[in-house]
Amino acid sequence: MKRFILSIVLGIVFCQPLFAESEKILFEKGVALMKNDQYQEAVAVFTRFIELAPENPAAYKNRGVAYMKMGKYDLAIHDFEKTRQIKPNLKGLYSNLGVAWYYKGDFDQAIKNYNMEIALTPDNYYTFFNRAICRAELDQLSESLADVNRTLALFPEFYLAHCFRGDILAKMGKTTLAREAYQRALEIDPAHGYAKEKIAGLPPEEEKQEEKIMAEAPEETEAAVAKEIREPPVEKSSAETESVSKTVQTLAGDSETTPAYELQAGAFQLEKNAQALAKRLQDKGIAVRRFELTRPSGKIWILVRTGAFETRAGAEAARARAMEKSGLEFIVRPYGAF
User: What is the pLDDT of residue 126?
Assistant: First the structure.
C-alpha cells in the first residue's frame, strides 16, 4: 500500500509578496531548486532565508517539504510544527504532517493530522485518499473504503483511488466488486499497468461464489455421508512428484494412525468451482482431495481438503503453513466429516 502514498504532491508555497528584495530572491531560488529536485541545496537556501525572516511560515513549510523528499522525516516534522506555531491554519500543513508521520510508521498520528486538514479543507480529495491509506495500514478496512469513496465523489477520474478501492475490496474478500474497481481504473487509464496486474491476480470469474458458499458451509455437528470423488491419474515428472510428496509430509505428517482432523480450503455446490480451487492449490504444490458430503436435508457439498492429523494442534500448525504457502484461507475440520 505504500506505493500509493508516493503519489502525493506535497504542498509548496511558491511566492510571498511581502518579502524584502534580498529575501524574495532567496525564496524564489529555494523554490526553483525544489522544482529541480535539488533538495539539499534548497534546504541550505531556505535555512539562510529563515535567518533573515525567522517568523515566516512559508519558509519552514518549504524546508520541511525538502527534508521530506530527502527522507529526513524528524526534521520535516520539526519544521512543520514550527509552521503550525506561526500560522496554524496554513493550507496543506496538516497533510504534510500526515505524510511525515505515515513514513515514520505512526499511522494514528498521521490520521489525526489528516482529520485536521479535512476540517480546514473538506474538498481536498488527496487528504481523504491519504487517510484511507493510513486506515488500511491499521486494518480499518471499512473506514478506509469510506474515505476512498469520498475521494472518488470529489474526483471520479482518480485512477489510483479506483485501484486502491480494488485492493481494499479484494482484501475484504469482495472479489467481484474489486474486479469492477480495477476495470473502472482501466477505463480511465488503459496504459497503466497496476490495474491490469491486479485483475490478472484475481480468482477466475467462475470462483466468485466461493466466499458465499464458504459462509454457508454446514456445521461440524451435523451427520453426513461421505463419498470420495476419485481423480483420474495424472502423469507427473519426478520433480513434480517430489514437490507434492514434500507438501504431503509437511501438511499431513503427524498422523500414522486414524486421522482426526484435516484442512478445508473450500466447500462448494458447483463441481467446476471445486475443481478450480483444487487446481489453484495443486499449482502451488499442495496435494488436495475432493469429496462429497451430504447433509441430512439432502443438500450435497463438494469439499476441497488436504492433510491428515491426529491432533488439532498439529492441524493448526499445518494450517498456518498452508495459508503462508498458498495465500488462501483454510479451516480445521474433522477428518471426512462436517
Answer: 93
